[in-house]
Amino acid sequence: MNGSLYLRYLTRELRGSAGRLVFFVLCLAVGVAAVIAVAGLSDGMERGLRSKARELLAADLAVESRRPLPAELDGILADLGPATERVDLKEFVSVVAADGGSQPGKSRLAELKVVAPPYPFYGELELEPAGVLHDLLDARSVVVAQGMLEPMGLAIGDALRVGGESFVIAGAVLSEPDKVNISFTSVAPRVFLSQAGVDRTGLEATGSRIKYRALVRLPGTDADGVRAAARQVRLQLPDVEYMKVETYAEAQPGLRRGLERAERFLSLVALLSLLVGGLGVGQTVRAWLQSRMDSIAILKCLGLRPREILALYLGQTVLLGLAGSVIGAVVAVGLQSLAPAFLTRVFPTYVIEVWQPFAILRGVLLGVGVALLFSLPPLLTVRRVPPAFVFRRDAAPLPVSPALRYGVGGVLLAGLFVTALLQSGSWLLAAQFTGGLLASGVVLALGAWLTARLVAGAPRSFSKVWLRHGLAALARPGAGTLGAIVALGLGVVVVLTMYLIETRLGGQLNADLPDDAPTAFMVDIQPSQWDGVEGLLNDNGALDITSVPMVNSRLVSVDGVGVESLVEQIPKDEPRNRWVLTREQRLTYQADLPESNEILRGKWFSDESLPEVSVEREFAEDMGADVGSVLVFDVQGVPITLHVTSIREVDWESFAVNFFLLVEPGVLEEAPQFLVATARFPDGNEQKMQDVLAADFPNVTVIQVRQVLDRIVEVLGQAGLGVQLLGAFTVIAGILILGGVVSAGTIRRGREVALLKAIGMTRSGVVSVYTVEYGLIGLVAGAIGALGGTLLSWAILVYWMNVPWTWATPAPWVAVIGTVVLAVAAGIGASLRALGRRPVEVLREN
Amino acid sequence: MKPPAIELRRLTRRLPSGGRDLTILDGIDLTIDAGEFVAVLGPSGSGKSTLLALMAGLDRPTEGEVLLDGEPIQALSEDALALIRRRKIGFVFQSFQLLGNLTARENILLPLELNGRKDAGARADRLLEMVELSDRGHHYPSQLSGGEQQRVALARAFGPEPSILLADEPTGNLDSNTGKLVLERLAELRREHGTTMVLVTHDEQVGALAGRQIRLRDGRLDRDAAREEVLT
Predict the structure, then answer these.
(1) What Cα–Cα distance (Å) separates residue B104 from each residue in A272, B125, B142, B154?
(2) Is residue B213 within 8 Å of residue B226, measured between CB atoms?
């Protein structure tokens, strides 16, 4: 068969199969849309982070520290070149309040940013009124986030109290290029002010969580030059291990790492919906070929070689795969362009580049590949169609060699692994994914086989004819029960797993706080202020008021090894480890073990000869310390040596104030310190309390626990939207498959209905027979699928995400019932046409 | 000497049925010369269609040999058999067996194109004319009557001028008038092309059109008929 003839028959063969082909294309389009949307969006974010790296940093190079930057930085920067420019920023949270006159005005937590010209070196601050930030800022004015005005009942020109001082709101910020700090604590809207402004408030003296940041511009320096400059800074700057030196060339490594992790997970989820679609494609091809048995036999009679016929149908699969994938790609691009609007709170969306041709191409190829992969087993039947079929309907199928059959199985499995590898980029994840799918498939196949065996062996002595026939239909040879149950069951596993994980994660955060948990935290209380603050708390109905002293320090060495060399030994991909060593260590001291703590090893402060410290278990592991270790801290210039005498387990979910490092009393009392207090407001008075505190103790920062949790729920909700969307894709693909499974039997069904009617069964009787047959298919697939989905989500939640499991969900039951209902509905739906026809029409055709 | 167009030697076909073997054809010996027109007669279930399928390499014998133009075909691969059918054999079936997604003309074109005939289009048009369906070439099988469909099938079978034509109850699904017309056309085309033809039928009248009649009963050649054959 030459090329042009091949192409001609390729297109001719597609005629008259419109319904089935639409189904094929839909199955695939859904999965491909999911895959491309995920890949396109994450590529778009990743590329955006790189191409807008300068804007996101607002500089070429930045140095950040929790303490004022060393004076040596100036000299080091000067050495980098005569044109080097530097501008310093400070960021910290504080409570700001509307001016309420004689009453305390409405207050809220804000993120203050102290800036000076020429910030930002790169990127634009969008302001209202339009203009330059520094023209609006002076010692008595602030510029605030647009989103903060209305909730506080403020407008441009009104007064805002910051640190107890009154400022005029000179403008509003609409967008800020370098606001990429996507942590749960950055809940607060931005307030810009000048150095002169912050000097008026005195907040810098009492604030314990100030981030000092030097932005550096290196004119005319390329990425390599900037990297070299960063190396220079790291080499020469004292105490640099406690600081973060970033360049635009690294393009937000933390953010990209998080993105990569999210992408891996979401890519596999998307792949699942594509594979569920692939199952549907496989079923469609099977049904399609069944309806083409006559044509295939005739073609063989006319002298077409089996491999030519196989090529014909393979070609059609590719064509349809391409059509489905392209439609999926169009849907995906549409979704991607909508995505930024939903991600504003979790990502600097201005950087997202929506058009990602490579992701689209990859998705389309993946779609075609999956279509081919799942079509291979049914396409084998082309070889099996006996040409003698034209004479005898019962002609025995041609044999297919076991090597070919196992070969196709092997190709399918290898193909699954390759797609998983492409999507996750990890051999281990790909192997786990393929193994999991294989195991689920095997269990489902076993279940299907067992069901058929049980039904076949069951006594057929039911008095109801429809029950007898329904069961018999399921068990008869060649009923296709196995394929239907496996396809359907896998769909249920995927959909239920997604649903359970998603609702459990959301549910955990939405759950009510423990009754005795504090509902507000107050930090930066100066020791001299405590009596006043405590009085106010009591006056406003606060219960369970506690306070602990806090001393800021830096870790200098663990067992004599300096932090600098410890940091050097840490592999690059373990950022937490580094954080444990170089963070601003917050020490507290108290005589008794706190309630939500438990000693795992060693003894609670018992050695009178040593200054002791108790360390939280995971923190100790990360810093490489255990009972007997010696830790040296730098407490504002004074070295303090502490001996680890106990390791504690902390119940962080208690929401009480807890510390990684607890020091024995008698060591830190003289160090500069402030207090952290907690309180519980049973009447929900947190806001009122905050307003009062903002008026009387403006340097005290109040954190309302409920607000923070709500913010986390909101952020996770935005991130979870993608997962929900992908889950919806999988559900749609699952429902499509069900239709495919059922329509695969349409031809047989038509003949059966005609026969049953011919021998006198009423239409309702026929419907009952199918209800039993499909109900049972749905029940077995639903039950095994629900069990598999529950087990899988349990394993993922408990072992992977460390989230405690709860059984309190009706979802698995709903899944079983839903699958039964869907299967019966689809089965009867597919038989409707046959039910409506006169038996003789159908029988004459056959 | 030219070998016979079709030669069957001790041809046996057994099928498994309900756990045991059912003998459909039992040691058939038969020789059909090139250009001969043979009718295979017999009641339903006597093995007529199986015989035809074996002759065309559509089925494989349990024992014995099938030789086409002196070449044994029973050991050939599916691909090789397909090529033999493409070049040598035409079929006409009781249920027409047209490809439903191709128009009448495209059905006729297919074997011509498979054989790489440069004049495929022109020949298809001429064949349509010969079976008096020139104006219906663009219709799909479902839009044609039974007689029209069978005439398309005739045109398709004779298109590539096969040396052997196998017809399985070609009038079985047609009323007697239409059947007669189709048979006339079949005979005409055979004469014109000098084709070797094997026609399976249970209808004595139809069988009488052939130069030689073979009778099958329970998978064997009917001895009376065979003797008759020897005597004539």
Answers:
(1) 45, 11, 10, 11
(2) no
| Chain B residues close to A299, C-beta within 8 Å | 99
User: Minimal Cα–Cα distance from A431 to chain B, Å?
Assistant: 39
pLDDT digits (tens, 9 = 90+) for A664-679: 999 999 998 999 999 9
The pLDDT-based confidence of A461 (bands split at 50, 70, 90) is: low
Q: Give me B118's structure tokens.
A: 């440069």
Q: Is A310 on the interface with B (CB under 8 A)?
A: no
pLDDT value of position B231: 46
User: Over A449-460, what HEC string results?
Assistant: HHHHHHHHHCCC
Residue whose C-alpha is closest to residue A661's, from A624, A701, A617: A617
d(CA A365, CA A671): 64
ipTM of this predicted structure: 0.83
User: What value, to the nearest 5°, has the Cα angle with vertex A227 and ends A226 and A230?
Assistant: 90
DSSP-derived pairing of the beta strands A85-98 and A107-114: antiparallel
- Residue A821 neighbours by CB under 8 Å, 6+ apart: A778
- Among B49, B76, B78, most A C-beta atoms within 10 A, so best to mutate, is B78
**3-state secondary structure string across A178-239:** CCCCCCCCCCCCEEEECHHHHHHHCHHHHCCCCEEEEEEECCCCCHHHHHHHHHHHHHHCCC
| Co-location of A419 and A401 in the same domain | yes
What is the arithmetic mean of pLDDT over A7-33?
Answer: 79
Q: Number of H helices and number of E strands within chain B? A: 8, 10
Residue numbers of the domain that contains A248? 55-254
A129 inside 8 A of chain B by CB:
no
- Segments making up each domain of chain B, as ranges: 6-231
A380: left (phi over 0), alpha (psi -120 to 50) or beta: alpha
Task: Work out the minimum CA distance from A24 to partner chain B, whole angstroms.
Answer: 19
Whether A50 and A117 map to the same domain: the answer is: no
Task: Specify the higher pLDDT residue, A502 or A250.
Answer: A250
Shared-domain flag, residues A648 and A508 = no
Is the predicted pLDDT of residue A37 greater than 60, yes or no?
Answer: yes
Q: How far apart are CA A696 and CA A164, in angstroms?
A: 8
Classified as helix, coil or strand, A68 is coil
Specify if A436 maps to a domain.
no
- The tens digit of pLDDT for each residue in A75-84 reads 999 998 888 9
What tokens were used for B162? 């096969």
Q: B168 vs A301: CB contact, 8 Å cut-off?
A: no
Domain B6-231 coded CATH 3.40.50.300: yes
- Residue A716: predicted pLDDT: 65
Residue-averaged pLDDT of chain B: 87
Q: Are A726 and A33 in contact (CB under 8 A)?
A: no
- B222 vs chain A: nearest CA distance in angstroms? 22
Using alpha carbons, list the distances in angstroms from residue A16 to A20, A820, A832, B2, B230. 9, 32, 20, 47, 52
> Are A263 and A404 contained in the same domain?
yes
3-state class (DSSP) for residue B5: coil
Residue A401 shares a structural domain with residue A262: yes
One domain, residues A446 and A588: no
- By Cβ distance, the residue of B79, B93, B102 closest to A390 is B93
A841 has a chain B CB within 8 A of its CB? no
| Same domain, yes or no: A277 and A242 | no
- Within this chain, do residues A374 and A467 fall inside the same structural domain, yes or no? no
Per-residue pLDDT, A767: 85
- Region A477-490: what's the mean pLDDT? 72
Look at A430-434, A570-574, A650-654, B70-74 and tell me which has the smallest mean pLDDT.
A570-574
Q: What DSSP state is assigned to residue A654?
A: G
**Residue A58 zone, left/alpha/beta (φ > 0; ψ -120 to 50; rest):** left
- Residues with Cβ within 8 Å of B204's Cβ and at least 6 positions away in sequence, in order, are B41
- Higher pLDDT, residue B148 or A513: B148
Distance CA A134, CA A115 (A): 8
